[in-house]
Design a protein that fits this description.
By secondary structure, the chain is of the alpha/beta class. The protein contains 15 helices and 14 strands. Bound molecules: pyridoxal-5'-phosphate and the ligand N[C@H](C=O)CCC(=O)O.
């Protein structure tokens, strides 16, 4: 067993001053038992905790650190930007540069507005869709998570599902009634809801590859089908690519599946590790945003020069290095294949969903295609598995309702260590 005494001590203290001892619920290890690990530093593929234990990082700050920790070019860009002040609250040339690069990399985005988090991006995107269409309702999918905006905390995935509060108290009945929900990967359900709410739905928002109920991949033709329903019913199609944007390809999930949304929300990777979000899409819709149009959205620190510099360096790197996606895609495939081999040898055909550098292992032999599929998995076993892997020096997301994220910093030895740890831990659990 690793010595985690300093983390334990810090957690005890943190709970006196911070609700639940953490600044975001998923960090509290509630779903997996034990106390959270307090991190001191990270470099490349590894994180180091306050007790000086080293972990292979399969969270990567929940996605942003696609190049691993301590990337020299990004850190140099931040250091350079620091010399010119931390914030101006006035336009900068860097904001134009990053907007231009985003529109180049994601062709469905013609104009883009920078905000400070993924939550801000999705909240702003649905306000825009409502302002543009003059309609009130939105349709989201069970188990998808779009940040903690009131309209989205209904049948929500990620920490909301982990904590057993997919419908959060504090969301008014009035707000909740405007959020319609459907099961992911069920096109007929969407058609039926659209028919029943004709002329009332402003936006359909979806994680094109879901990562907040574990990784769940859209069925063939599903995203195309959503596009068709939206076209037929005049609904704004929003792809929430906060997680998948610049992770699954340079153009995100839409680049892989070839379906163009009207609006895309972004976050995580576009900040290179700094707090950033963005929403962008068709000119005719984006021009509804203030000051060009009537839909109000603002931010004191939006377009922050430090965050723009980190994000810009990250996006330039990804734009110039196709091999990033080849490498992390190959790592993802290797892990999925080798873990499946171990499972089979131990008499279990657990489901593994993997696309590129997003992976989830589900303790269930049935296919996992939606939130009900995830909920049917053995989450108690996941908790024990998580603790076992942690003791082997592998830091997984501390909940079944999350995807693992890979980075380019993972070496072949790291991947093999993960597979060997998996074998050891699973053997123990099944013994
Ligand atoms: C798909 C998706 N949308 C939105 C968000 C919200 O982003 P943030 O946590 O930056 O507010 C997240 C992650 O939290 C996410 O995974
Ligand atoms: N699943 C969430 C985002 O992707 C996890 C991050 C958080 O809520 O802290």
């Amino acid at each position: 067993m690793l010595d985690k005494s300093r983390s334990k001590e810090l957690f005890k203290k943190a709970q006196n001053f911070i609700p639940g001892g953490v600044n975001s619920p998923v960090r509290a290890f509630k779903a997996v038992g034990g106390d959270p690990i307090f991190i001191k530093s990270a470099k490349g593929a590894y994180m180091y905790d306050e007790d000086d234990n080293r972990y292979i990082d399969l969270i990567n700050s929940w996605g942003p650190m696609i190049l691993g920790h301590g990337n020299g070019a990004i850190e140099a860009a931040v250091a350079d930007a620091l010399k010119s002040s931390l914030s101006f609250g006035a336009p900068t040339s860097k904001e134009i540069e990053i907007a231009e690069l985003i529109t180049h990399m994601v062709p469905s985005i013609e104009k883009v507005r920078m905000v400070n988090s993924g939550t801000e991006a999705t909240m702003s995107a649905i306000r825009l869709a409502r302002g543009f269409t003059g309609r009130d309702k939105i349709l989201k999918f069970e188990g998808c998570y779009h940040g903690h905006g009131d309209s989205f905390l209904i049948a929500a995935g990620s920490g909301a599902a982990t904590m057993g509060t997919p419908n959060s108290p504090g969301v008014t009945k009035g707000t909740a009634k405007d959020t319609l929900t459907a099961p992911f990967n069920d096109l007929d359900a969407v058609k039926k809801i659209a028919e029943q709410n004709k002329g009332q739905i402003a936006a359909l928002i979806v994680e094109p590859v879901a990562g907040n109920m574990g990784c769940v991949i859209p069925k063939e033709g599903y995203l195309q089908g959503l596009r068709e329903v939206c076209d037929k019913e005049g609904i704004v199609l929003i792809f929430d690519e906060v997680m998948t944007g610049f992770r699954l390809s340079k153009a995100g999930a839409q680049g892989i599946f070839g379906v163009k949304p009207d609006i895309t929300t972004l976050g995580k990777i576009i900040g290179g590790g700094m707090p950033v979000g963005a929403y962008g899409g068709k000119k005719e819709i984006m021009d509804f945003v203030s000051p060009q149009g009537p839909v109000y959205q603002a931010g004191t620190l939006s377009g922050n020069p430090i965050a723009m510099s980190a994000g810009l360096m990250m996006l330039h790197y990804l734009n110039d290095h196709d091999e990033v996606y080849e490498q992390i895609g190959a790592s993802g495939q290797y892990l999925a294949k080798e873990i499946a081999k171990v499972n089979t040898a131990l008499g279990k055909n657990y489901t593994i969903n993997q696309l590129g550098s997003m992976i989830s292992l589900f303790f269930n032999e049935e296919a996992v295609e939606n939130f009900d599929g995830t909920k049917a998995c053995d989450t108690e076993m996941f908790g024990k598995y998580f603790q076992g892997m942690l003791n082997e020096g592998v830091y997984l997301p501390p909940a079944q309702y999350e995807s693992w994220f890979l980075s380019t910093s993972l070496s072949a030895e790291d991947l093999d260590h993960i597979v060997k740890s998996h074998e050891k831990v699973l053997k123990n659990l099944l013994a």
